[in-house]
Amino acid sequence: MEWWLAVLLGILQGITEWLPVSSSGHLAIFQFYFEEEPPILFDIILHLGSLCVILYIMRDEIRQIVEAVPSFVTKFQSDNLRGNERMIAMIIVASFPTAVIGFTFNSTIIGDFYSEMHLVGGCLIFTGLLVWFSKDYDGDKKIDDFPIKNTLVIGFFQGLAILPGVSRSGSTIAISKILGMDPVRAARFSFLLFIPAIVGATLLKIGEIDETVAEVGALPLALGFLTSVVTSYFAVNALLELIRQQKFHYFTPYCLALGLILIFDSLK
Question: Could you give the C-alpha distances from 115 to 36, 112, 224, 262, in angstroms and in order?
């Protein structure tokens, strides 16, 4: 792989992973029109760049969650989970449907979406409409007020993001808002859900690392990773600011326009 192509894909991943426009959808568009299909593990390594940024930005919350693990283990069967103990339960419950969907849909089915632009376009339109619908739902529920069972729904929408065009961040933040969660907390909860999802995907594909290095090259791999880190840092902070300013839905016109263009182009 050319180094500049790896940099371009790193920029694409870093920006579109966090903004509600679907990184997988943009990767599918890139693969289709540029006829370049990077290995799956290369895509995961770009996601690991985004993961490093989240681990840094969320470092205080992650530390507090880790410190709460012993008390969670002691109290997890009770109804007295509070604060970070409750957050652990929410992450586990939300990750369950994501994992089920991830294991149920095989690579052949998902691969069909990468080659059919009208399907990607439809998923982008779905993302745009969901984000738009959520704009009037600025809930005020904190973690202790949010029903744990509702995180199953959030996890389901995260699982849908396996389809190119369905934004993981956009769908999880939007549905969290609709269910009554505070918008900023919804974003930060979405960030936390990203961690087990990417760690799990990495463990499933880590055996292909030698093959990927040989195919892509060590330098493009490193440049793609570093570019993803830098652009992810700015994109995450931009997303949080947009949510604070209640402008999260500003990305809907982009998703709708791109989705319609892909659908009409596929009809030619």
Answer: 12, 5, 23, 12
